[in-house]
Amino acid sequence: MGIVHKGVAPHRCTFEIWDGDIDEAEIQAHLSRLAQDPQWPPGILNLVDLSTVRNISVPDPELVALLREGTVLENELRTALIVRPEWIAGDAPQYDEAAHATGVTAFSDVAAASAHLGVPLPVSLGMLEALRQSL
């Protein structure tokens, strides 16, 4: 359980898996790993698989803003989240305002998320499978 990532420069995308219970300490550790990764950011795209997250703490927006400052992500980041279908069902709580403010779009399947970002589906499937195995 935890968070893993991999930047893929040819596709200008960071792929991430968030799994299990994610607390504030794990998010801060993840942000620190991103900041120390010389391959990050590989571009403006971010594909995050949250389909196996149970409980999650929301990161401090100021910390995230600080990490993005001075990178191409500061004004151009496009994130696609893969979530369980019930998270975006018609009767689920709506997070449109937060999604609009952060440029995040939620999807219930990898194919739709990949298409949204323009990343070939086989690339996304391969990267997410490799990351999941590394957890």
In words, what does this structure look like?
By secondary structure, the chain is α/β, with parallel strands linked by helices. Helices cover 40% and strands 28% of the residues. The chain contains six helices and five strands, in the order ββαβααβαβαα. It has a five-stranded mixed sheet, with helices on both faces. The radius of gyration is 14 Å and the shape is globular. The model is unreliable at 94-98 (pLDDT under 50).
Write down the CATH topology.
Answer: Transcription Regulator spoIIAA
Number of domain modules: 1
Structural class of the secondary elements? alpha/beta
Backbone CA Rg? 14 Å
Order of helices and strands: EEHEHHEHEHH
Under the CATH scheme, the architecture is: 2-Layer Sandwich
Enumerate the spans where pLDDT stays under 50 for 5 or more consecutive residues. Answer: 94-98
DSSP summary: helix tally: 6
- The average pLDDT score comes to 83
Q: Characteristics of this structure?
A:
135 residues; alpha/beta; 40% helix; five-stranded mixed sheet; Transcription Regulator spoIIAA; single chain; 6 helices
